[in-house]
Amino acid sequence: MIGLLGTFVNMILVILGGSIGLFLGSRFPKKLSDSLMKTLGLCTLLIGISGLSKGENQLITIISMAVGTVIGELLDLDKRLSDLGASIEKRFKKDGDNVTIAEGFVNASLLFCVGAMAIVGSLQSGLVGDNSMIYTKSLLDFTASIIFASTLGVGVLLSAFPILLYQGGIVLLAHLIAPFLTDVVIGDMTCTGSLIIIGLALNMLGITKLKVMNMVPAIFLPILIHLFV
What we know:
single chain; mainly alpha; about 0% strand; globular
């Protein structure tokens, strides 16, 4: 349970930050909310671009993206998530909202779970009970969740649950998966995830309508590829 403490703190701070963001966002005029959405898109683009340099092999990223997208399309992850969001929207969405529950959920979940801090921090929590990196990540996520929830709505709060599943899973399986998550593998996972975040940013800017959720399986494929390379 000590190892999972950091993950629970991360969840609580995302929910708290998201709640603050919802409170603030309800007081923003629509014009300001639209401008903030575009600004968030640019910031998300910066996050994605900054993570591309972490990978050491572009071919692995390309293969991971191609195969991962095929898997995501076959599983139709985007539609499944949209259906889940639609069922929740009936309860939470207000008239005049221009974003969906699923949009806020996907955007926030990717940003909070894809980065190297989520992987490395969870490994440290599971292997030696050191939650310091996860606590640092939690503070960053807290700040980001305020900003995102003010524009993207209640879906941002729901991203706390993928944090529990993703980071908690790594913590519990740390002793089993640690030998496979070398610095090179983590770098390629971060690079692949950053490319997906760029796609997410383009959607937020209204440039594309990519089914970003269908690309998510690509993040984990570098682990398998490195086993055979």
